[in-house]
Specification:
Layout (H helix, E strand, L loop, with lengths): L4 H14 L17 E10 L2 E9 L8 E9 L5 E3 L4 E2 L6 E3 L5 E5 L2 E10 L5 E8 L7 E2 L6 E2 L6 E4 L5 E5 L5 E5 L6 E7 L4 H4 L12 E10 L2 E8 L5 E7 L7 E7 L11 E5 L2 E8 L11 E7 L29 E2 L2 E2 L1 E3 L2 E4 L5 E4 L6 E8 L6 E8 L4 E7 L6 E7 L4 E11 L6 E9 L7 E8 L1
Antiparallel strand pairs: 1-2, 2-3, 3-4, 3-5, 4-24, 6-8, 7-8, 8-9, 9-10, 9-11, 12-13, 13-14, 14-15, 16-17, 17-18, 18-19, 20-21, 21-22, 23-34, 25-28, 26-27, 28-33, 29-32, 29-34, 30-31, 30-33
Length: about 450
């Protein structure tokens, strides 16, 4: 992956500047900084939020997207990079355009519905990947498109009756009733009428009289069905409609997120997690970002008493932590709140590791619960270079140094060893920064870390 060190330095400077502004000290948005991400689709499973995204290639001047990515969090501020468990090559019949999809769990399997260009027809079609784990790897469930009519942006919803629905579409809105196997459907492909009562009135709409554009996100709450979607174009805002049933009739309810940010598209995703509601979206907030180099962000919100969704604005602060992070169990190095300079890659020991580390690079995790104190820090490291030092700091990259671990040369970037060092003055709940120091060039990789009490 190409390095973006100048851009990352710009990002660090920007974060330092925004930290001076009220309400932006943590600067938790966008939630991923080392690659561009788009089209968020959150899924809550076994106490974690799994986030499925697209991946805009660096320097894109169109929607150049070749794979999908998965992230997860237990606290909404520290996100673990699970890499790319599905790509265009997963679907032998796919030609290009790994665009916006959504995953759902049923009967212990995970189904990821995505639009790609069908090589045989040169039209957009929807494929379905399946996996035994929320982080994959995913395989092509049926070896062909599930449905194809040249339109995009599938969203999947399982009603509490057990009936599953797949919706998609731009410029129209369609659905099918999925069978229990989640890889076939009963009945025909049905078009939902796009009326101005149901989806709002587009200014100067012409042959598109309603606000509906693309990116539907359908769910149910307190007996009411919601369809949140990208509205108008271009630039898009996020609007929504509600209905008494999963197929309508829909009534337009208004704006969720106004047109904001430097991306001319947006894409919604909403989940409830640990007693709160969260709205995911994308913008172009990272350095080099824009309409084709987007970044996923998230806001916490509360429904109005009547079930309507309030207006939500983009922030750099993001949501407060939903939980603490436990430093006394193994934590993956690719679990990150903020970073500067690092990249990630698959690790030979499984999972991902952080790498391409140079002097001064760092990663931060928030809200770490050290309790009565920690005495030792251990990290799993590898180096084909000369190694270096891990500085264990509190608060920020310039915060108090509470320990230093020496990383030796190990003979290879995937030749792993564990190093430990004493730490002192580490108590209570604090933000933790691992700052990396050494000579010139790449220093070492880190797979995981852990403190002992």
């Amino acid at each position: 992956m190409p390095r973006r060190r100048r851009l990352l330095a710009w990002l660090t400077a920007a974060l330092c500047a925004t930290a001076l502004l009220p309400g932006t000290a943590h600067a938790d948005n966008p939630i991923v900084q080392h690659i561009y991400t788009a089209d968020p689709a959150p899924l809550v499973h076994n106490g974690r939020v799994y986030l499925y995204t697209g991946h805009d290639e660096d320097g894109s001047t169109y929607f150049t997207m070749k794979d999908w990515r998965v992230w997860s969090s237990a606290d909404m501020v520290n996100w673990t990079d699970h890499g790319s468990p599905m790509s265009l090559s997963t679907f032998s019949w796919a030609k290009q355009d790994a665009w916006a999809g959504q995953a759902v769990e049923r009967n212990g399997k995970f189904y990821w519905y995505v639009p790609v260009v069908n090589r045989a027809t040169s039209r957009m079609a929807i494929g379905v990947g399946v996996a035994d784990s929320p982080t994959g790897p995913f395989r092509d469930a049926i070896g062909r498109p599930l449905v194809e009519n040249g339109e995009i942006d599938p969203t999947v919803f399982i009603d509490d009756t057990g009936q599953a629905y797949l919706y998609w579409g731009n410029p129209n809105l369609w659905y099918v009733r999925l069978n229990a196997d989640m890889t076939s459907y009963s009945g025909g492909v049905t078009q939902i009428p796009l009326t101005t009562a149901g989806f709002g009135t587009r200014p100067n709409g012409g042959n598109r009289p309603t606000l509906y554009e693309e990116g539907p996100w359908v769910y149910k709450r307190n007996g009411l069905y919601y369809n949140v979607f990208a509205a108008k174009c271009c630039s898009e805002f996020i609007g929504y409609s509600t209905a008494p049933g999963p197929t309508g009739p829909w009534t337009y309810r208004g704006t969720v997120m106004p047109t904001q940010g430097s991306s001319f598209t947006n894409h919604p995703g909403i989940v409830d997690y640990k007693g709160s509601s969260y709205f995911f979206y994308h913008n172009g907030a990272l350095p080099g970002g824009g309409g084709y180099t987007r970044s996923v962000a998230v806001e916490k919100f509360a429904y109005n008493a009547d079930g309507t969704i309030p207006t939500i604005n983009m922030t750099t602060g993001g949501p407060p932590p939903a939980d603490t992070l436990n430093p006394f169990v193994r934590q993956e190095a690719e679990t990150i709140n903020r970073e500067s300079g690092i990249e990630t890659e698959p690790a030979s020991e499984g999972g991902m590791n952080i790498g391409w580390i140079e002097n001064g690079d760092n990663v931060k995790v928030r809200n770490v619960a050290f309790g009565a104190g920690a005495k030792t820090f251990t990290a799993r490291v590898a180096s084909a270079g000369s190694g270096g030092t891990i500085e264990v700091r509190l608060g920020s990259a310039t915060g108090t140094v509470v320990g230093r671990c020496t990383v030796p040369a190990t003979g290879g970037w995937q030749t792993w060893t564990s190093v430990s060092c004493p730490v002192s003055g580490v108590t209570g709940t604090q933000d933790l920064v691992l700052r990396f120091a050494g000579g010139s060039g790449y220093l070492f990789n880190v797979n995981w870390w852990q403190f002992s009490a």
